[in-house]
Design a protein that fits this description.
single chain, alpha+beta, 2 domains, five-stranded antiparallel β-sheet, 7 helices, MFS_trans_sf, Solute carrier organic anion transporter family member 1C1, transmembrane helix, transport
Length: 273
C-alpha cells in the first residue's frame, strides 16, 4: 500500500496531464486507454513466473524422512517416531526442525524437552527430525515455520511488477472516465456515472470476494480448528494451485475487459472520426 498508492495517484494525474498537454481527441483517448490496458494485461501475465514453493510440512506436503508411516485418513501426520506421543491432530503450533521441515507441533516432531520461553523456545531430542551431521532423534527444532528462500527472493520482483501494472492501469484510468463524459449527451452525464458505478459494484465489488474466496479455499491443504469446534482459518495452502487459480481468474476477467476496450475503441472511432 505504501508503494502502490503514490504510484497509482501519480499515474492518474499523469494521465490527466497528458490529455490536457496534447489536447487529445476522444478517439485518441480511446486508443490511449485501450493500449494502456492491453499493456498492463500482458505485464499481468508475467505474474505466473513468480513462484514460491509449498511449505514443507511433515506428513502433509513432505514425508517423515526414512521413517515408516502409520496409516491415517487423508494425510499421514503420524509416523513411527511419534506414534506413542499422543499428538492431537487439531492443534497447529508449528516448529522448524534442523532438517528444514516444518512440523505441525513439537509433539509431531517427537521432541522430548525444551528450553527458553516464548518465541525463543527451542525443542530438543526430537525423534522425527534428522538434521545434518546429527543422527535421528538427536536434533532440535525452533518455534515457528521454516523460512522459504524462494519466496523471499521472488517478492521484490513481484512488487516491482505489481508497481508497473498499477502505474500503467492508473495512466489509462483518467482517459477512460473522460471518454464516458465526452461520449454521452450533457443531460445524461450524471446518469452515466451512476450506471458505471452500479455495474462496477454488481459485477465486481460485491460478488468478487465470494467467488475468489471459494476458489482460494479449494487450494487449502490444512484447515485450522476453532476452540469451540468447526473449521477455522487455513494453515497451509498449495501455493502453486493458489497462484494458478488466483492469477488465472484475474487473467480471464481482464481478457474480457481487453475485448470490451477494443470494441468500444472501434465504436468511438467510427462515431467521432
Amino acid at each position: 500500500g505504501v508503494i502502490l498508492l503514490p504510484i497509482t495517484i501519480m499515474g492518474m494525474f499523469l494521465g490527466g496531464f497528458l490529455i490536457k498537454k496534447f489536447k487529445l481527441h476522444i478517439t485518441e483517448m480511446a486508443k490511449f486507454a485501450c493500449i494502456t490496458f492491453i499493456v498492463a494485461y500482458l505485464l499481468n501475465l508475467l505474474y505466473f513466473t513468480c513462484s514460491c514453493e509449498v511449505l514443507q510440512v511433515a506428513g502433509l506436503t513432505a514425508p517423515y524422512s526414512g521413517l515408516k508411516h502409520l496409516s491415517f485418513p487423508k494425510n499421514n501426520f503420524m509416523a513411527s517416531c511419534n506414534a506413542d506421543c499422543g499428538c492431537k491432530l487439531d492443534q497447529w503450533d508449528p516448529v522448524c526442525g534442523d532438517n528444514g521441515i516444518t512440523y505441525m507441533t513439537a509433539c509431531f516432531a517427537g521432541c522430548k524437552s525444551s528450553t527458553g520461553t516464548g518465541k525463543n523456545m527451542v525443542f530438543h531430542n526430537c525423534s522425527c527430525v534428522e538434521g545434518q551431521g546429527n543422527g535421528l532423534g538427536n536434533s532440535s527444532a525452533v518455534l515457528g515455520q521454516c523460512q522459504r528462500e524462494s519466496c523471499t527472493k521472488a517478492f521484490p520482483y513481484f512488487l516491482a511488477l505489481q508497481t508497473a501494472c498499477a502505474f500503467i492501469l492508473a495512466l489509462g484510468g483518467t482517459p477512460t472516465y473522460m471518454i464516458m463524459f465526452r461520449s454521452v449527451s450533457p443531460d445524461l452525464k450524471s446518469f452515466a456515472v451512476g450506471i458505471e458505478t452500479l455495474c462496477g459494484r454488481i459485477l465486481g465489488g460485491l460478488p468478487a470476494p465470494i467467488y475468489f474466496g471459494a476458489l482460494i479455499d479449494e487450494t487449502c491443504l490444512k484447515w485450522g480448528t476453532k476452540n469451540c469446534g468447526g473449521s477455522g482459518s487455513c494453515r497451509v495452502y498449495d501455493t502453486k494451485a493458489f497462484r494458478n487459480v488466483y492469477l488465472g481468474l484475474i487473467a480471464g476477467l481482464r481478457a474480457g475487459c481487453c475485448l470490451l476496450y477494443i470494441v468500444i475503441s472501434v465504436l468511438i472511432m467510427k462515431r467521432f472520426k
